Amino acid sequence: MNIQKVKISEVKNNPNNPRILKDDKFRKLVQSIKDFPKMLEIRPIVVNDEMIVLGGNMRLKACKEAGLKEIHIIKAESLTQEQQKEFIIKDNVGFGEWNWEQLANEWDNEDLDNWGLGVPDWSAGIDENNMSEEEIDIEEEFDPIGTTSNDQRVVFLFDNAEDAEDYLNENNVEFKKMNMAWQVNFKTD
């Protein structure tokens, strides 16, 4: 496989692409392409023999929006239809997790946000506009033991669910597991 530079009009969006970007993230992608076009050469759009995108539908759309006339592609030749479908999904799956502590200490939050990472602002509380439906449902299910004006929300970040449960159990903290979160009740005197 070799990288080719082609007219953007030769490349076709994949109508079966299940991945989308909402308005704000799409605008950030367009700006990212304008600010760092070299990245498109380093990470070209992947197409099949018919020039239909297998990997990079949103980048192609953003390139068009940014006014590019040519783009870099890699043609994934000799893939079966099943392999093409598999590629479309696997190319968009995020297997890794962000190390939030490292990001907070070594990167500028504004840069990360501008680059499309969407760093949560834990100090601002919960913003339901940036939450998934599942996260909102969890928030609505939250049932604190007491609700006084002195109650505060505390956020603990763990590497995985097992570490969270271990910590809570070791410290005899009452908790209830709820989908992606735990309701934790601390009693203070």
How does this structure look, described?
The protein is α+β, with helices and mostly antiparallel strands and 189 residues long. The chain folds into 2 domains: 3-92, Conserved hypothetical protein from pyrococcus furiosus pfu- 392566-001, ParB domain (Alpha-Beta Complex), CATH 3.90.1530; 133-185, no CATH class. 38% of the residues lie in helices and 14% in strands. The protein contains 8 helices and 6 strands, in the order βααββαβαααααββ. The chain has helices spanning 23-35, 38-42, 57-65, 81-92, 100-106, 109-114, 133-141, 161-170; strands spanning 3-7, 45-47, 53-55, 70-75, 174-178, 181-185. A 4-stranded mixed β-sheet has the order 1-4-2-3. A two-stranded antiparallel ribbon has the order 5-6. A hairpin with a 2-residue loop joins strand 5 (174-178) and strand 6 (181-185). The protein starts with a strand and ends with a strand.
